[in-house]
Write a structure and sequence with these properties.
alpha/beta, Rossmann fold, Arc Repressor Mutant, subunit A, 2 domains, four-stranded antiparallel β-sheet, 11 strands, elongated, OmpR/PhoB-type_DNA-bd
Length: about 220
C-alpha cells in the first residue's frame, strides 16, 4: 500500500520511512504542510501519517483543507501534541486516528492497516474472495487453504485488487497505488504481475476489461 508520510524531523522521518517500507508499505515522505496538502490532492494514497507541527502549513490546517476538498483518505495524526483539546480537535476536523509520539513501529503499521481496511468496508483482518485469502499483516496468501508464494509486488497488486473488488482499475491507477516516488516502472510491469497471479491463483481470478484495465470480481463469472 502506498502511503504519504508528512514529518519535518529528518531522523524521525527517515526512521519511519525505512521501518514502514520493511513492513510492506510504499512511502512518499514530505517535510512541510504545503507539500503534504499538494500530494494528498494529487495522488490516491491508501493512508497518510500526518505530523501537526509542520513548517509552511500546520498539519491541522492541512487536514481541514483536504477534507473540505472532499478527500476521504484515512489520516493518522502522529504528533507530540498530547493535550486533550488537541486530540479532540484533530478527530473532530477529520483525523481517523490520533497517536502520540513516540510510537512503536509495529503498532503504527497495525493502525494503518486497520484504517485502510475500514476505508474499504473490510471489517476482518484477512481479505477473502472466493478461495483466496490474503493476510495483510503476515503478508501471506492462501488458495483453497494452501499457501501460495508470491513476490512482494505480486502480493501488493493482489492486495489492491482485493480491496477494490468489483471495481475496474486501469494500469495507471494500479501503478499509482503500487509505486512510490523514484521507483522506475517498466511499461509492462503490471501485465507481467497479472500474468503471474493468474498462473499461481487461477486464470479466472482477475479479468481484463479491454481498453480499460483489470477487475477482480467477488463472485465467479459463469
Amino acid at each position: 500500500m502506498r502511503i504519504l508520510l508528512a514529518e519535518d524531523d529528518p531522523l524521525i522521518g527517515e526512521g519511519l520511512r525505512a521501518g514502514l517500507r520493511q513492513l510492506g508499505f510504499h512511502v512518499d515522505w514530505v517535510r512541510d504542510g504545503e507539500a503534504a496538502e499538494r500530494e494528498l490532492r494529487a495522488h490516491p494514497y491508501a493512508a497518510a501519517v500526518l505530523d501537526l507541527g509542520l513548517p509552511l502549513k500546520d498539519g491541522m490546517d492541512v487536514l481541514v483543507e483536504v477534507r473540505q476538498a472532499g478527500s476521504a483518505v484515512p489520516v493518522l495524526v502522529l504528533t507530540a501534541r498530547d493535550a486533550v483539546p488537541d486530540r479532540i480537535r484533530g478527530l473532530d476536523i477529520g483525523a481517523d486516528d490520533y497517536v502520540i509520539k513516540p510510537v512503536d513501529l509495529h503498532e503504527l503499521a497495525a493502525r494503518l492497516r486497520a484504517l485502510i481496511r475500514r476505508a474499504h468496508g473490510q471489517p476482518q483482518e484477512r481479505l477473502r474472495i472466493r478461495d483466496v485469502v490474503l493476510d495483510p499483516a503476515a503478508r501471506t496468501v492462501q488458495l483453497e487453504g494452501e499457501s501460495v508464494a508470491l513476490s512482494a509486488r505480486e502480493f501488493d497488486l493482489l492486495h489492491v485488487l482485493m480491496l477494490h473488488a468489483d471495481q475496474v482499475l486501469s494500469r495507471e491507477q494500479l501503478e499509482q497505488h503500487l509505486y512510490s516516488w523514484g521507483r522506475e516502472v517498466e511499461s509492462n510491469a503490471i501485465e507481467v504481475h497479472i500474468h503471474n497471479l493468474r498462473r499461481k491463483l487461477g486464470a479466472a481470478l482477475i479479468h481484463t476489461v479491454r481498453g480499460v484495465g483489470y477487475i477482480l470480481p467477488r463472485e465467479s463469472k459463469k
